[in-house]
Write a structure and sequence with these properties.
2 domains; globular; Cytochrome p450; 5% strand; two-stranded antiparallel sheet; single chain; mainly alpha
């Protein structure tokens, strides 16, 4: 498996997290047997559930610590799966231009497809080419200019919110979850630029932003899990985190369904600003609703 760092298939293997796991197991062996056994059990559970931040003390970026530092290409082994990380521009160009059918998106596709269906990121090459042709006209200069303005507006709202958090603190120091704040700002940008809808998630917390945040965290955990336990029959009933995942996905899908329905049923008047979604519906006649069914995880078409 390349745990020792030897070359496998000519690619250097980076497995810092496995070294951390090994060191932890060694430490457990030096402790009281009952306590060591309990900690080893927690360690195995965290590995299965993809909670690598509890093992390594840091989230996913710890696996990418060696990115581009010494090698332009290396492999990360996570249980029975592996990921090849590429930073060498020559290798990247070859992958993207020479024979893309020889390469897959690997774990990225696996963890995002239940959320995004056959969207641009997890799509197979044929679907990707079709979707790309459909959306490229939407990135016209006027839309890009407006989208840039909206990004700046959302960034200012985020900065103002952080300043408010500091100002109401007696010590003028505030502890905030920046990952959640950045997710909120991203959701607001997507809402305004794609759907012409203001989620307002930067300035106030809502069930929707919590659902989106938890979906992203679940995707991260699945990318790090050594066993895809969520594919087990009845996983929603056996694992609380999977039940929460299904509920979060259902909530996000319900909101997206409403936004898509509004775009289809309420076309803008002449001269009104078109959202990116409305542009695709009006000018291209594209099916913009291919997403996974939150109950089954399989793709379904809503028109």
């Amino acid at each position: 498996m390349g745990i020792s760092g030897d070359l496998i298939d000519g690619i250097p293997v980076q497995n810092k997290w496995i070294n951390i796991v090994r060191d932890n197991l060694d430490d457990f062996g030096k402790q009281d047997p009952e306590q060591g056994q309990r900690q080893a059990g927690d360690l195995m559970q965290n590995m299965i559930m993809g909670r690598m931040e509890r093992i390594t003390g840091a989230p996913m970026p710890v696996f990418l610590e060696g990115y581009g530092e010494s090698e332009g290409i290396y492999k990360i082994v996570i249980g029975p799966r592996s990921v090849v990380v590429v930073s060498d521009p020559v290798v990247v160009k070859r992958i993207l231009t020479s024979s893309p059918e020889l390469y897959t998106k690997g774990i990225l596709t696996e963890v995002l497809e239940p959320i995004m269906g056959q969207g641009l990121i997890p799509a197979d090459p044929e679907t990707w080419r079709k979707r790309r042709r459909a959306i490229v006209p939407g990135f016209h200069k006027k839309w890009l200019t407006e989208a840039t303005r909206q990004m700046v507006e959302c960034a200012v709202n985020l900065a103002d919110d952080l300043e408010r958090s500091i100002s109401i603190s007696s010590s003028h120091v505030a502890e905030v979850n920046m990952e959640e704040k950045f997710t909120s700002a991203s959701l607001d940008i997507i809402g305004k630029a794609i759907f012409n809808y203001d989620f307002g998630s930067t300035t106030h917390e809502s069930p929707l932003i919590r659902a989106v945040y938890n979906l992203l965290r679940e995707a991260e955990r699945r990318a790090q899990s050594v066993i895809p336990y969520w594919n087990l029959p009845g996983a929603d009933a056996m694992f609380r985190d999977q039940k929460d995942h299904s509920e979060n996905l259902a909530l996000v899908n319900a909101v997206l369904d409403e936004l898509i329905r509004n775009a289809l049923e309420d076309p803008p008047e002449e001269g009104d600003k078109l959202s990116f979604l409305q542009f695709l519906v009006i000018t291209k006649g594209e099916d913009v609703t291919t997403r996974p069914d939150s109950r089954t995880g399989s793709g379904s078409r809503r028109s």
